[in-house]
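Re-run with default settings, no changes from the original entry. Doing this only to confirm the output is reproducible before filing.
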Amino acid sequence: MTVRNDHGFSLLEALIAVAVLLLLFSAAMPALNQTMMFNRTVGDLSEMHGSVRGATELMQQEIGQAGRVALPGPIALAGNAPKGTSTVALSTTTGLFVGAQVIVGAGEQAETVTLSSMASPSVTATFTIDHAAGEPVQIYGGFVTGIIPPSQANGSTGTVLKLYGDINDDGSMVYVEYTCVLAAHKVYRNVMPWDAASKPAITEAMALLNNVIPNPNNSPCFTYQTQVVLTQTFVTGVAVTLSVESQQVDLYSKQKNQPTKTLLNVSPRN
């Protein structure tokens, strides 16, 4: 019978083929490993930047609203307000406060008066013209200390940003504190009604950002641009600088990543 030579690989040929495949896999594995390490590093950095960006975007929005004055709903005179210093009842006094400058009336009958005292549902002010029941009471403008200046007693600091106003643009006046606690590696956001009798204690539920570390050169979390007009100090700009640290060690550098995010010159409403 004729002997055929195409029955398959010989043992030597199979061993050579396996050796070649092993060499190819050995050459490809480092590249695959580096790709996996790179993807993990990029993922960690993206996650950290995303968390810091979310915190700074919220701060930017609320800093921009600081100082805004608003009322939760329409207010009108519930009785006549004769010319001179008068105490008059309103439909509601919610959102008003002693010292507020409100506009009473509409059109040519409108004037700005200052509330000298309040005893809900009545207020006392000095009117220059007579007003009839039903005329609207409105409030415009803003608080000059929407961002509480660092020079003011118990004002904002490098680790505590204090602001208030109609922050959520919903007619509700609130007071907000952002506190950078490096010892706890967190930034907290504490919010309450602007006229609350007391400030709630900071809890873990208020944590806005975790894994916070000291900034390069130990620069403060919050810095302020101020301007003095006559005797009043205005905060005209707020800068936010936050540094965070990754939870896992980077496979390339063998160290934890420590990115820094800076938000410069955010102007408040005041």
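The chain has a mean pLDDT of 87. The longest helix spans residues 11-65.
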